[in-house]
Amino acid sequence: xxxxxxxxxGHRSDRAAAVIAEATGGxxxxxxxxxxxxxxxxxxLIGETxxxxxxATIPGFPxxxxxxxxxxxxxxxxxxxxxxxxxxxxxxxxxxxxYDGRDTxxxxxxxRTAAAAGCRTLILTNGCGGLNPDWPPGTPVLIADHINLxxxxxxQGASFVDLTDAYSPRLRALARDVDPGLAEGVYVxxxxxxxxxxxxxxxxxxxxxxxxxxxxxxxxxxxxxVGLEVLGISLVTNAAAGISAYPLSHEEVLxxxxxxxxxxxxxxxxxxxxx
Length: 275
Prior knowledge:
The chain has helices at about 15-25, 105-115, 170-180, 200-205, 215-225, 250-275; strands at about 30-35, 50-55, 70-80, 85-90, 120-130, 140-150, 185-190, 210-215, 230-240. By secondary structure, the protein is an alpha/beta fold.
């Protein structure tokens, strides 16, 4: 991929994709999934895991720094396509968060690697805080758009990428065919790692946000630069600060994820089956 020409060896997507290809028999992958908090069980439902790579063996890939994430990349055999050809998914069990080191190239690296491995579709999931009282913890919400409040971008130089339809209308319609009850909202990425203040949550609502979190938007920008079609789904794991009557905690996020895991896993599996 041309976008890697100025990156150090640890963040060269072609090197990482070559390692994945060698470990998976040189097959081309079609779709990539990034599994956020509450979404981990999907890898077991979408197909047969043919290979599982420890992130430590892939150049530039992160260890799991958040409880509930897995530091592995799976190659999963999907049901054959309409033409009978074999299809594969790359399933990332964790992601590099911007707050891990404020390195946007590290955040973008798995996304660019997916494109270098042949993927044309990317499904991003996360756990987030919800601003809409009609979306209690455990509610999956399609991301229709985002607001990037990190003050950063994974793009370098004059890379003027159009983000008008960053979250594919086609894929969102497909997801609603699978589950007509899915709501849509605008996701607001804050830098983290601290939770947002009630005033920041009110600001996000004034700006048009429905969901707040610490991932995803930077990954989407990188994905659109390399031509990936993106579907984003958030799992509301808690009411955002100032909306909830209780203090926020990561244990609350994990608990909501565990409760919602079967529904989330089934939803992703059904969506992937229709791609």
